Amino acid sequence: MVIQALAFYLFAGITVASAVMVVSSRNPVHSVLFLILAFFNSAGLFVLLGAEFLAMILVIVYVGAVAVLFLFVVMMLDVNVAQLRQGFLQYLPIGMLVGIVLLMELALIGGAWVLTPEIEAALGQPIPPVTEVTNTEALGQVIYTHYVYLFQAAGLILLVAMIGAIVLTLRTREGVKRQSISKQNAKQRSEAVTVVKVPTGEGM
């Protein structure tokens, strides 16, 4: 128990410190690197809680894909940090309003456990006992049985968001050849192949 407590405080301390450095760092690349460090330590906290599936998802998806993508985007775009900081005071009231709303939502979530103790029993009903199945198997049973429609709806929302991002960022320029799959499939053999008879001993 002592080792687990020490590991918890170590992971939690590094996570909080990394999160502070993400916000306060002046270099965007350093912010992304500190974000990766925070993700790794958050995964360690999930392992201590027995949620090994969430820990692996956090490392594979967020560290291996999202954070690295952020890093490459920041390095390629060469973001002007000084220009971004000029509008800080302009958007400060809106940011404070969003922060207050988030704090109120977190307070409501925390107060729900105190005001309605039966909610804990209701949430724990569809989850199989920990002694019978593993954490990953229990998560799969819950997602693909009780919440399968919500899971499919989330997938559709992500699909629509991906298509919308592609449509918004798609740019057409004149003079640039683009591939047309429909024209390629509709092309006949006579249009794509030309048979040339070359006499023996002569070139083209």
Q: Which CATH architecture of the domain at 1-86?
A: Up-down Bundle
Largest sheet: none
Computed CA radius of gyration, to the nearest angstrom: 27 Å
- Determine and state the CATH class of the domain at 1-86: Mainly Alpha
CATH superfamily of the domain at 1-86: NADH-ubiquinone/plastoquinone oxidoreductase chain 6, subunit NuoJ
At the fold tier of CATH, the topology name of the domain at 1-86 is Four Helix Bundle (Hemerythrin (Met), subunit A)
The average pLDDT value, as a whole number, equals 79
Describe the global form. extended
Strand residues, percent: under 5%
3D architecture notes:
With 204 residues, this protein is mainly α. It has a domain at 1-86: Up-down Bundle (Four Helix Bundle (Hemerythrin (Met), subunit A)), CATH 1.20.120.1200. Helices cover 74% and strands 0% of the residues. The protein is built from 10 helices and no strands. It has helices at residues 2-24, 28-48, 52-77, 81-85, 92-115, 118-124, 135-146, 148-169, 181-186, 189-192. It is extended, with a radius of gyration of 27 Å. The N and C termini lie far apart (84 Å). The model has no long low-confidence stretch (mean pLDDT 79).
